[in-house]
């Protein structure tokens, strides 16, 4: 396949993915908007007003970057895991496997499709947050780059989960028992400076902490961790997981007999 | 003559240790209409799965129009269209979108894809259903949709795994016509089917696979020549109380007005009619007991089973 044909194949997957999640917008775009609005009202307005400041900012201002990032993470991941698993379940993965579309195009197409949903939900949540607080922009490059890299990283994660999944239960195990706890413990609602020293150390092995704090740095200009280290960690994870997903695709794990 | 499909020493051992293919080899020439037959679990779908890149082979070599599936998969896949046994399209997508999406996977531009989708949807009688969600189609329409999808990149080799399973007679006939026309236009077709009359009327060459080995690979004409005896069913009048004897023929009675007569290849039917006429028996109708190919198929598979079990 020449470059033009490769691009057509890639674009076909991306468009199909976007068409899928916009067709079922009531399941993909609406729920995070409602959930995050409730977070803003309950944690930001009602409880936040009693908490006072966090890291030198209103509690609402502090949690908004984390909640946006949480939406991006969960939606990028769940888009790819559910879409690719249902592609396997309905067996229309075979349409791709018989075609000359290379594996790296298949992976990239799904990852970009998932990232688009993550970013779109992130944008919706950002717009909703404007009803509750003023958003600052401390560093636009950091905001856009870290949110994009995070969406890519968790889309790849969702893809790997889908390859291993043999039932719909397996699709929800990682988001429920790994992703959600890590997100809640990743400094979305608090600064890790509030934790005892031991738990601060434990928190630093949570990769989501780095993404949330880097994004918060881009908006508020404050962070609990080193931004340079956070970037290298996110990029490192992307390289490792992308390579692993390619290995799984090339060996046909979970998709070929 | 170019070889459309070449399979050499193909072996497949599944994870549970089951050896589905025991080193099979066969070739299909360009322009052929080839039937791959075999009982359930013989290895047909595994063979086609490997050719279609849906199943990983254990060892062996597969070439599609000279392109090795291991080293030149892209070119091999471009030459190949696959219509699987089970429905494997997105049940929530519209009919036309399924076709244009498939074309996209082959790098075909959206404009060309739309044109081709219209051509094949019209050809297969699905144009009116183009905006319908695929799960709403009838079983026969879903089968036709899979054929249209497999043709979107205009492959030179089309593989159909039991394309007429569960399809009514009228639709089956129209699909036969379509496939015959496609073959006449130059597309090489490989077909698996359980309807042996389908293989007999459509295909020129045949491979019979059983227990993971090819037990026959020849032309249908040569294969049918192997048939030594055919059984004919004759409805007779008047009703007979005992089985009439016919010299040189093995005759059995079924009910009081039906005869089952084994006729050897070297014998004719004229003597049957004349002997019956001499006994005052009139033949009111006549038919084959079973499809000729079916008889051969059963005898070949039985023979192979005897070999497998050491009988």
UniProtKB/TrEMBL annotation, chain A:
Transmembrane segments annotated in the record for this chain:
29-47, 59-78, 104-128, 140-165, 171-195, 229-249
Q: Which domain of life is it from?
A: Bacteria
GO molecular function list:
ABC-type transporter activity
Q: What is its main location?
A: membrane
**Cross-referenced InterPro entries:** ABC-2_transport_permease, ABC2_TM, ABC2_TM_bact-type, ABC_2_transport
Cellular component per GO? Answer: ATP-binding cassette (ABC) transporter complex
* Subcellular compartments: Cell inner membrane; Membrane
Answer whether the UniProt record assigns the keyword Glycoprotein to this protein: no
What keywords appear on the UniProt entry? Answer: Cell membrane, Membrane, Transmembrane, Transmembrane helix, Transport
Stated membrane topology is: Multi-pass membrane protein
Q: Where is the ABC transmembrane type-2 domain?
A: 23-252
Magnesium keyword on record: no
| Coiled-coil portions | none
Q: Name one Pfam family in it.
A: ABC2_membrane
| PROSITE patterns per the UniProt record, alphabetical | ABC_TM2 (PS51012)
Give the record's family classification. Belongs to the ABC-2 integral membrane protein family.
The record's section on PANTHER family has:
INNER MEMBRANE TRANSPORT PERMEASE YADH (PTHR43332:SF2), INNER MEMBRANE TRANSPORT PERMEASE YADH-RELATED (PTHR43332)
**Name recorded for this polypeptide:** Transport permease protein
Automatic annotation (TrEMBL), chain B:
Instruction: Give the superkingdom in one word.
Output: Bacteria
| SMART domains associated with the record | AAA
Q: Which UniProt keywords apply?
A: ATP-binding, Nucleotide-binding, Transport
PROSITE patterns in the record = ABC_TRANSPORTER_1, ABC_TRANSPORTER_2
Domain ABC transporter: where?
5-236
UniProt GO molecular function: ATP binding; ATP hydrolysis activity
Q: Where is the signal peptide?
A: none
Q: Which Pfam families match?
A: ABC_tran
Identification of the protein by name: ABC transporter ATP-binding protein
